[in-house]
Amino acid sequence: MTDQQTTPAPDFISPKDAEAPATSAKAYRLATRPWFKKKRFILPLALILLIVIIQVANGIGDTGTSDTAKSGSQPAVTSALQAQAVAAAIGTKVRDGKLEFVVTGVEHPGKTFTGKLGKTLTAQGEFVIIRVNATNIGNEAENLDCSCQLLLTDKGQKFEPSSSVLLTKDALKFVELIDPGDTVKGAAVLFDVAPGTKIANIELHDSPFSPGVKVKLS
Length: 218
Prior knowledge:
With 218 residues, the chain is α+β, with helices and mostly antiparallel strands. It contains 3 helices and 8 strands. It is elongated. The model is unreliable at 63-84 (pLDDT under 50).
C-alpha cells in the first residue's frame, strides 16, 4: 500500500486579520504623535491663546484710561500736597481730627521758670512754651496730652513735650478732657531744647495716629 503524500492547504487570511497590521500601525502613529498635535490638547491651547489675546487687548485699553485718569487728577493731588506743606500762621484756626487749634503765642522762659506750688523747673537745655487754644469739634472727649505734639526746628529736628509740662501752673489744661463743643484756652505745651535752637513750626495732633497740622512759629 503506497502512502499518499498530502499537500498542506494554504493558510486562509480573513479580512479582519488583513486589517490588523494597518490598524496597529495607525495606533502606533497616533501614540507617537507629538502632544501638541493631539486633539485633546488643541482645543485647550486655542482657548488659552484666545484668553491671552483678550487680556492683552484689555490691558492696553486700561493703560490708556489709567494714564488719562492720573493725568487728570495730578493737579488736584499736587494742590493738596502744596496746601499741607504751607504752615498756618499764629492766630489761625487749624484742625486735625477732632480738635481745632489756635496757637496764640510763643514764650522763651530760658533755663528755669517757676511751676505750680512755687517749684522751680530746670531744663536740660532751655525751655520753650507754645500757648494753644484747643476746641473739641468731635463727639467724644479729647485732650492735648500727647507726645505727638511736636516742635520742629529750622534744621528739621523734632522735640516731644517735656515731662516737666505736668509740673507747670497750666498742667491741668494740658491733660484735662475737653468735652465736645468746649474749648481749653492758653494751654502750655512745654519743650526742652538745646540752647540757641531756632524753632520753626509746631505740629499739632489730636492723636498719635493722625496726620497732624503745622503752625509756623517764626
